[in-house]
Amino acid sequence: xxxxxxxxxxxxxxxxxxxxxxxxxxxxxxxxxxxxxxxxxxxxxxxxxxxxxxxxxxxxxxxxxxxxxxxxxxxxxxxxxxxxxxxxxxxxxxxxxxxxxxxxxxxxxxxxxxxxxxxxxxxxxxxxxxxxxxxxxxxxxxxxxxxxxxxxxxxxxxxxxxxxxxxxxxxxxxxxxxxxxxxxxxxxxxxxxxxxxxxxxxxxxxxxxxxxxxxxxxxxxxxxxxxxxxxxxxxxxxxxxxxxxxxxxxxxxxxxxxxxxxxxxxxxxxxxxxxxxxxxxxxxxxxxxxxxxxxxxxxxxxxxxxxxxxxxxxxxxxxxxxxxxxxxxxxxxxxxxxxxxxxxxxx
Length: 347
Ligand code: HEC
Ligand SMILES: [Cu+2]
Known about the structure:
The protein is α+β, with helices and mostly antiparallel strands.
């Protein structure tokens, strides 16, 4: 930035105080605003330049002074100047914008993950610890937070103006965005994609808390079971463990450690197993069959909600060893929650 920090701070204070600008409350906000001010500055400079030339020429070459027009031949220097300067400005803007884009869309590796499910007309937030919120989201300051978002119906868009973030929330596909809140406080959450009658009511409050307060909040508002624990129950009650028992003779692959691994598919390609892939392999198993297995897994399309899928995914992510599957298996057999499916291998 060419602007000195003092002028910059003054500018931001003035813009915020005059209610022209939302507060800057995330680490990315000053970077976004710098680019924005640069763009506005360039636009105003261009406007003033053209305006000044227009007025000067109208006075200088008015009819009473210049009754007969003089023919002017081209000037290479002039033409090169007015091509190269704007080109340079556009390229600077492009590179600047691209760098910022990569920064905004690549979450730091140490970020915590929260799920967001959008639907007509509300936002649901699901924390890994099992805290559920509606039209509200509590986050700690000083810690990168990644949101993994999906819509249950139409397109929505998740926007927190004070954090300068906004991302489409799409049916059938996870999209992500991240931020790091800097100042404790309450901030607006908007849906910025027209999504039906009560679109304007699809709003909420983001509460940024200091790390200590956040810890208190998570302890005070837990539902008792984490997402992974809910997923574990689903895994048993939906009969997933009849094929994914982890036994050598099981009909489905062992799912322990599958998250984050690279799978070889029957069609010869390789995939990285992330949240999106897990979701898709539950809904469209025949689309990408793991090498060495028959395409016998049934589709669960329409049988499980987005929340249920999130639970299952969080459960699968915890399966670093086969221990948990075996536990689930024994529990579900002992309380008869899921009668063993035909063809299930007896231990
Ligand atoms: C009838 C047996 C069967 C059932 C029931 C079943 N699966 Fe599968 N599953 C398979 C087989 C076989 C594969 C490997 C072939 C493929 O990718 O379709 C597989 C693949 C997968 C994969 C891809 C990862 C990998 O290692 O291939 C995931 C994730 C998965 N299943 C999760 C589930 C979940 C969650 C459930 C319950 C909602 C479930 N499965 C129910 C048989 C089954
Ligand atoms: Cu919406």
